[in-house]
Amino acid sequence: MMPLSKYYNYSNFGLILIVDDNPDNLRLLSKILESKGLKVKKTVSGKIAIQAAKIEPPDLILLDINMPDLNGYEVCRKLKAQEETAHIPIIFISALDQTIDKVKAFEIGGVDYITKPFQELEVFARVKNQLIIYQQHQRLIEQNYQLQEEITIRRRMEDALLAANEQLQLFALLDGLTGVANRRKFDDYLNLEWQRLARENLPLSLLLCDVDFFKNYNDTYGHLKGDYCLQQIAKTLKLSIKRPADLLARYGGEEFVIILSNTDFQGAVYLAEQIRQEVHNLKITHAKSRVDNFVTLSVGVATILPNLQIPPNNLIEIVDKALYAAKAQGRNRIVAENLT
């Protein structure tokens, strides 16, 4: 018949601590366990056992109840009260065989109870079972920890992916040169505001700005200078937009468009004139301009009460005609249409 010790690999276990004030009991228990390939430490003192378990936590403790310095119950309570030793399984060993003693042992944290005199097969069977349970428990703890780590890593990756996707979506709605909203963002936002303001019966104003004689500027100073010029103008326009609900977008080429939600005609004209002046104040030299020595803007303005029965493109057509009129009248000026 194959020995019991062959059924399980005990080399994975670290240490068993035996605590008993009787040297004969210590020798007997040590002999039983060491003959099965288990590593054993032993002490006759409960106080020493508490310190030893804290310094080098064993996989299992065999603990006598009746000891002179600290009885086994007190030792168990102290071990369970310490974070370093609270997880260690404890098997009580005692000559006490009353039910009340066994119940008390389990109530304070014991996992099993062995009565004296010892029976070798019983001792080893109970020790073996607790070692297997303890090792499986430790594996579950480790697996749970690894799982939590994997979940944390996965969440970080998902968060990073989400942030990257949000960034990509943001970039997809921004003009690459100027950093303001692009035409796609403008179209989407205009439709949303058109519907919202139509429901609330509030005005919507649109400003369409064009850099005067910008082709001449590019031909004279080069496209790099032209790009920088547009960036400076975009920055100036962006600083002029104060409210979160308003939107500045690059409409195309040298044209910029501004959506002013819930803004009446007078407010839109005032802002348009302020923008025209601010761009002129940049003092960007434009030797080939036919209206000024510096870069200037022509601005078309239109204000309307949105209506769900008509498309927002109607407003775009109107403000485009106003811009065309500003150019036709000599540029560096504003032409406005009040449709309210």
Strand count, sense and barrel status of the largest sheet are: 5 strands, parallel
* Overall shape: rod-shaped
Calculate the mean pLDDT score and round it: 91
Based on DSSP secondary structure assignment, what is the total number of beta strands? 10
Determine the structural class based on helices, strands and strand pairing: alpha/beta
Task: Determine the number of helices (DSSP H or I, runs of at least 4 residues).
Answer: 10
Distance between the termini: 103 Å
| Biggest sheet strand line-up | 2-1-3-4-5
Q: What pattern of helices and strands is seen along the backbone? A: EHEHEHEHEHHEHHEEHEHE
Unreliable stretches: 1-8
Radius of gyration from the CA trace? 42 Å
Summarize the amount of helix as a percent range: 40-55%
Fraction of residues in β-strands: 15-25%
Describe the structure.
With 340 residues, the chain is of the alpha/beta class. Helices cover 50% and strands 16% of the residues. The chain has 10 helices and 10 strands. It has a 5-stranded parallel β-sheet, sandwiched between helices. It is rod-shaped, with a radius of gyration of 42 Å. The termini are far apart.
